[in-house]
Amino acid sequence: MALVLVGLGNPGRRYARSRHNAGFQVVECLAARFGQPLKRRRHRNYALGHLRVAGTRLTVVQPHTYMNGSGDIIKPVLSDCAADVQELVVVCDTMDLAPGASRLRLSGSSAGNRGLASVLRVLRTEEVKRVYIGVGRPMPGVAVIDHVLSRPSAADAQAIAAAVGRVCDHVDLLVEGDYQRAMNLINQRGATA
What we know:
Elements: E1 3-7, H1 22-33, E2 39-40, E3 46-53, E4 56-63, H2 74-80, E5 88-94, E6 102-105, H3 114-123, E7 129-134, H4 144-149, H5 154-169, H6 171-176, H7 179-186
Parallel strand pairs: 1-4, 1-5, 5-7
Antiparallel strand pairs: 2-3, 3-4, 6-7
Helix pairs in contact: 1-5
């Protein structure tokens, strides 16, 4: 089974290390680990890289749309990769988990992430595997949009990087389809949970 992992985020330097780009960070981590740079597809609004993990092809994808339009690239990506929704994993941030937490879910709602909501709407199903990276809730008086689009504190950034690393460490289990074991290892509370 081939796997397509789409990391959600916002393009551009302004958002590069924002909380909302945790999905992008997973894709960048995997591309670096496996020595495969991401390449922009001609006439496509995304970049991708093809990796070999556990003897199987893993395609990692970064949309070049803004977060709320992430669903726009899903059907072209699946078509280009000759994959279907069962071979898709979406990685995104969530405020419902503390920084450093991560959680694999095999289906369900978007948990408030508008990028994931866009993907589910386009695919017309909630039966999409997803990995959440916790970014924590905003401080009182801070708007949600300001929170997710800002850079985290040094401590939170370190915790989020640990969650990103954990997902990358266990991506082989996702590729192999061993979702129960992947959940046992990926589903962790953050340091501040």
